[in-house]
Amino acid sequence: MRIIGLRPARTGAGAIAHVDIETAEGIKIYGVRVSRAADGSYRAFGPDNERGRTCAFNHDIANKIATLTVAGLSQHERLAS
């Protein structure tokens, strides 16, 4: 799994970033929202459409997405300064 696009969220948006991921070769999911819960854990949510959720992630995959996102945000902040 890898991050192919990362957009930091605006402050106060309830999310830390929106990411595009490639879960396996040839399988890409765009617009995954990554947020931090009150208990400090991370959550990852697939994009919604008019019918509701388009995909879901189990706890292990959500943690992997969050870990990659946090690392990407750290790199993004270093490059921006």
Task: Characterise this structure.
- With about 80 residues, the protein is α+β, with helices and mostly antiparallel strands.
- It has one domain: 2-Layer Sandwich (Arylsulfatase, C-terminal domain).
- About 25% of the residues lie in helices and about 40% in strands.
- The protein has one helix at about 60-80; strands at about 1-10, 15-25, 25-35, 40-45, 50, 50-55.
- It has a four-stranded antiparallel sheet, covered by helices on one side. It has a two-stranded antiparallel ribbon with strand order 5-6.
- The longest helix has 22 residues, at about 60-80.
Keywords:
single chain; Arylsulfatase, C-terminal domain; globular; 81 residues; alpha+beta; 4-stranded antiparallel β-sheet
Q: Class by helix and strand content?
A: alpha+beta
The coarse silhouette is globular
Report the top-level CATH class.
Alpha Beta
The helicity comes to: 25-40%
Number of strands: 6
Look up the CATH topology.
Arylsulfatase, C-terminal domain
Q: In this structure, how is the largest beta sheet organized?
A: 4 strands, antiparallel
Based on CA atoms alone, the radius of gyration comes out at 12 Å
Number of helices: 1
CATH architecture, please?
2-Layer Sandwich
Largest sheet strand order: 1-2-3-4
Point out poorly predicted stretches. Answer: none
- State mean pLDDT (0 to 100 scale): 89
Q: Could you give the topology of this structure?
A:
Layout: E1 2-8, E2 17-24, E3 27-36, E4 42-45, E5 48-49, E6 52-53, H1 59-80
Antiparallel strand pairs: 1-2, 2-3, 3-4, 5-6
